[in-house]
């Protein structure tokens, strides 16, 4: 799908005025849907992490309830033992009371019946609490297994991203410090390339050194098929002055898709890649100085893990 859209964009900008506004709007709509899909994936990952915290909180609450039930069971055990001892004493004294009047015997028999009823009630309650305790323990064990499995999957994803970051840093070490940085944060990897490494002013044609850096990145990404790749084009706040494009939005998109084509041509699956243009609206520095503007003119390549396994586990 991305390949088709990219080809349509190329045809659209090549033919310029020959392409109808309707075709352009349709292409732009498809592009916005792709960007929205990527944002939803990122949000899904954040929601999953929040759900994990909720499961851990539930687990802590169940542990507390389990401790309280164990305390109640111990109290019932003591009460049961005490009543049983009283009953035994009454049985022993019953023989002595047999010589007493029938009225006294009847009264004592009534007391015995009441004590037996209390004893049976306590025993029944104790059994109910034991069953509830067993059920709670089973539920607690299941929750603990779910949390452990979820944590294991998240840890594996984090380890995978750290390994990927190391592989990318090794592949691009010749370019780091020359307009290129690689950062691992919030479970994602951010590869930032300043335009001085990639493009001439107002151009979206990738230069020789920039192409070499992107191709080396592609050699790593092509071996990691379950990584989602978002390519974001960014500009400074200086308006685009050429005649081919409309504005900085167009320029940022063209630069993003130029990187996408290099990655695709070097073996990165198109299903992994999303291209986005952010224009001048996500600066990383001030636009009041030449140095700040240079930092803002950049390509951001954001690598995120595929969270399908975690989503499947939570749905189960």
TrEMBL record:
Pfam families attached to this UniProt entry: OmpA
InterPro entries per record: Bact_OuterMem_StrucFunc, OmpA-like, OmpA-like_sf
Keywords: Coiled coil, Membrane
Residue ranges the record marks as coiled coil: 24-174
Domain OmpA-like: 186-307
CDD domains according to UniProt: OmpA_C-like
One Gene Ontology cellular component: membrane
Protein name stated in the entry: Chemotaxis protein MotB
Organism, as annotated: Lutibacter oceani
């Amino acid at each position: 799908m991305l390949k088709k859209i990219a080809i349509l964009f190329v045809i659209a900008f090549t033919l310029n005025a020959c392409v109808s506004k309707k075709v352009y709007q349709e292409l732009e709509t498809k592009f916005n849907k792709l960007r929205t899909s990527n944002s939803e994936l990122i949000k899904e990952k954040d929601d999953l992490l929040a759900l994990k915290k909720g499961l851990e909180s539930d687990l802590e609450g169940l542990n507390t309830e389990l401790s309280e039930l164990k305390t109640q069971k111990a109290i019932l055990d003591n009460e049961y033992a005490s009543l049983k001892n009283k009953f035994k004493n009454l049985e022993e004294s019953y023989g002595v009371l047999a010589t007493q009047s029938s009225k006294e015997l009847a009264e004592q028999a009534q007391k015995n019946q009441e004590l037996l009823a209390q004893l049976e009630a306590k025993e029944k309650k104790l059994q109910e609490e034991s069953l509830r305790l067993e059920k709670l323990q089973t539920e607690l064990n299941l929750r603990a297994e779910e949390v452990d499995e979820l944590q294991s999957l998240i840890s594996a994803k984090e380890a995978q991203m750290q390994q990927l970051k190391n592989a990318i840093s090794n592949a691009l070490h010749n370019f780091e410090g020359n307009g290129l940085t690689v950062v691992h944060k919030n479970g994602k990897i951010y590869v930032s390339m300043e335009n001085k490494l990639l493009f001439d002013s107002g151009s979206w044609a990738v230069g020789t050194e920039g192409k070499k850096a992107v191709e080396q990145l592609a050699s790593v990404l092509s071996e990691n098929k379950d990584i989602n790749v978002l390519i974001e084009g960014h500009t400074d706040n200086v308006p685009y002055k050429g005649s081919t494009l409309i504005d900085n939005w167009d320029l940022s998109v063209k630069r993003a898709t130029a990187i996408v084509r290099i990655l695709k041509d070097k073996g990165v699956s198109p299903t992994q890649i999303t291209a986005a243009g952010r224009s001048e609206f996500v600066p990383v520095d001030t636009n009041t100085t030449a140095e700040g503007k240079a930092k803002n003119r950049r390509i951001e390549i954001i690598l995120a893990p595929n969270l399908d396994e975690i989503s499947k586990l939570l749905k189960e």
